[in-house]
Design brief:
Elements lengths: L5 H15 L12 E5 L5 E6 L8 H8 L10 H5 L10 E6 L11 H7 L4 E6 L9 H8 L3 E4 L3 H7 L1 H9 L3 E8 L4 E3 L11 H12 L3 E5 H7 L12 H8 L6 E5 L18 E5 L11 E5 L2 E3 L10 E3 L1 H10 L4 E4 L3 H9 L5 E6 L9 E2 L16 E8 L2 E7 L3
Parallel strand pairs: 3-4, 4-5, 6-14, 6-15, 8-9, 8-14, 9-10, 10-11
Antiparallel strand pairs: 1-2, 1-3, 7-16, 12-13, 15-18, 17-18
Helix pairs in contact: 2-4, 4-5
C-alpha cells in the first residue's frame, strides 16, 4: 500500500466531493471526480463526470486546467505533442481512468497526452473492460500510479454501479413507509398519509438517485401512481443536479397475470415503462411501453406453502443489468417486497417510520411467509437513522 500524505488526502477528498455532484445524472456510468495539482501542490484543474455520453471527470479537469486533449488513440502520437501546461502535474481521480473507447475516448490516454507525472486513484474500476487496464496503460507510459487512497469512500459512492459489475444484477433498494407497529395501511387499504410531507419529499430525492423505479401490478391497480420524480418537491440543489440527467428514471412494472391496460397514469406520459410478464399483453399498446417476457418459476420458498407460479425475479434482474440499470428503487406491496427478499435480491431497506400505531388488523409491510425459528429471520444491518420531519428514516443493508 503506498504511503499517502495529508495533502494527498485533501485533494482526494475534494475529488470525492466533486464526484458526488454527478450522483443524480451519470447513470449508467459511475460517479467520478478529478483534481489536478501542479508540482507546488496548487490546484490547476477540477472536474467531474456529469452525464453519460459527455466528457469524463479527467477530461473536464484537464480542460479546466487549460489543456484540451486531442484524444488520440495512439500513445506515440499523444507523446509527440508540444509541452502542455499540465506536464509534471498530479491527478487525483476517484476511479481508475478508463482505457477503452466507449461513448468517449479513453481517459487514461488523455492523462498521458497531458504528460501528467503521477496519478492517485481511489478505487479500481470494477468494470471488466477497464479493471487494471487503465492503470497498466498509465504505467506503460511511465506515469507513477498510486492506488487505494480513500477507497472505501469511493466504493460507497459507486455501490450500485459496482454491484452491477460484480453481480450482474442491479442494486435493489426496497422502500417502506410504516407505522411504529410495522403496518403500511389500514385493513381497508387506506394509507394516505402515514408519513409526513418532509418524508414524502425525501422519497423524491431517493427516486432521483435511482436508475429505475420498480413496482407491481397490485400497486398500479390500487393507487394508479405515476412513479416519477416530482421535481418541485426536490430541494433546489438536488433539483439542479437531477435536471442535468434530462430524463426520468425508467419505470418497471411486474405484471405476471396481465391485469394492466392503457388507462393507468403510468402509461399516459412519454417516459419509458418496462412491463415484465409471461405473455404479451395486447391491452398495453402505448408508445412508452416495452414488454419483456420472462419465464415462470415455482414458489420454492421454505417459508410458504403457496403453490402459485411467479415470474422469475432473478431473470428480471439480469435483464435489467443488461440494460445498464445500476440502482432499482422499489415501491410495492408486501407480496412483491417479500418475494424479492426471499429471492435474496434486496441489498438495502429504507424505512420511513411514522409515530403512530395502526393495530393488529392493519396491513403488514413485507410478506416473507411464516417463520418457525428465529434463525430463519432476515437480519439487516442498521446503517443510518435520521429524523425527517416527524418521521424516522432508517437505512439498513442486506448481504445478498
Amino acid at each position: 500500500m503506498p504511503k499517502f500524505t495529508k495533502l494527498d488526502a485533501q485533494w482526494m477528498s475534494l475529488a470525492l466531493k466533486l464526484a458526488s455532484k454527478g450522483r443524480f445524472s451519470t447513470t449508467p456510468n459511475p460517479n467520478v471526480g478529478c483534481v489536478i495539482v501542479d508540482a507546488k501542490n496548487n490546484i490547476i484543474g477540477t472536474g467531474y463526470h456529469q452525464k453519460s455520453g459527455q466528457a469524463h471527470a479527467e477530461v473536464n479537469a484537464l480542460v479546466d486546467a487549460g489543456f484540451v486533449p486531442h484524444q488520440n488513440t495512439d500513445i506515440k502520437t499523444a507523446n509527440s505533442q508540444s509541452k502542455p501546461i499540465t506536464e509534471g502535474a498530479t491527478a487525483y481521480v476517484t476511479l481508475e481512468p478508463c482505457s477503452h473507447v466507449g461513448k468517449t475516448p479513453p481517459c487514461a490516454l488523455a492523462l498521458i497526452e497531458a504528460r501528467i507525472s503521477r496519478v492517485v486513484i481511489a478505487s479500481v474500476d470494477k468494470n471488466p473492460e477497464v479493471k487494471y487496464k487503465g492503470i497498466q496503460l498509465l504505467l506503460d507510459a511511465g506515469i507513477k500510479v498510486d492506488v487505494g487512497l480513500m477507497e472505501a469512500e469511493a466504493d460507497k459512492l459507486n455501490i450500485a454501479f459496482n454491484h452491477r459489475m460484480t453481480k450482474n444484477r442491479p442494486f435493489v433498494t426496497v422502500k417502506l413507509a410504516t407505522s411504529l407497529d410495522g403496518r403500511t395501511a389500514l385493513a381497508n387499504g387506506k394509507s394516505k398519509w402515514i408519513t409526513g410531507t418532509k418524508a414524502r419529499a425525501n422519497v423524491q430525492v431517493e427516486r432521483a438517485l435511482s436508475c429505475a423505479i420498480l413496482s407491481g401490478a397490485d400497486t398500479v391497480l390500487a393507487d394508479d401512481p405515476k412513479l416519477n420524480v416530482r421535481c418541485d418537491e426536490l430541494p433546489e440543489f438536488e433539483n439542479t443536479l437531477f435536471k442535468q440527467r434530462g430524463t426520468q428514471p425508467i419505470r418497471i412494472i411486474i405484471d405476471g397475470q396481465n391485469r394492466l391496460d392503457n388507462s393507468y397514469q403510468i402509461f399516459q406520459d412519454e417516459h419509458p415503462v418496462i412491463v415484465f410478464n409471461a405473455e404479451h399483453n395486447k391491452n398495453l399498446s402505448t408508445l412508452n411501453v416495452e414488454q419483456i417476457q420472462v419465464g415462470l418459476v415455482d414458489s420454492n420458498n421454505i417459508r410458504t406453502s403457496e403453490a402459485r407460479k411467479y415470474l422469475d425475479l432473478q431473470a428480471i434482474m439480469h435483464v435489467l443489468a443488461k440494460k445498464q440499470i445500476n440502482r432499482v428503487w422499489t415501491e410495492t406491496g408486501s407480496a412483491l417486497s417479500g418475494a424479492l427478499m426471499n429471492a435474496n435480491l434486496v441489498n438495502e431497506l429504507i424505512i420511513y417510520q411514522a409515530p403512530m400505531l395502526l393495530g393488529s388488523d392493519a396491513r403488514g409491510a413485507v410478506d416473507i411467509g411464516v417463520l418457525n425459528n428465529l434463525d430463519e429471520a432476515i437480519k439487516p444491518d442498521l446503517q443510518e437513522v435520521i429524523q425527517v420531519g416527524n418521521d424516522l428514516k432508517l437505512r439498513l443493508s442486506i448481504t445478498s
